[in-house]
Amino acid sequence: MKLRNVLKIGLAAALACGTLGLLAGCGSGDSNGSSSGDAPASEDKVIKVGASPAPHAEILEQVKAQLADQGYTLEIQEFSDYVQPNLALSNGELDANYFQHITYLEDFDAERGLDLVSAGGIHFEPLCVYPGKSASFDDLPEGAQIAVPNDATNEARALLLLQEQGVITLKDGAGLTATKNDIAENPKNVEIIEAEAAALPRTLADVDLAVINGNYAIGAGLDPSTAIASEEANSEAAEKYVNVVAVNPADKDSEKIQALVKALTSDTVKQFIDSTYDGAVIATF
Question: Is residue 12's pLDDT more than 80?
Answer without folding.
Answer: no
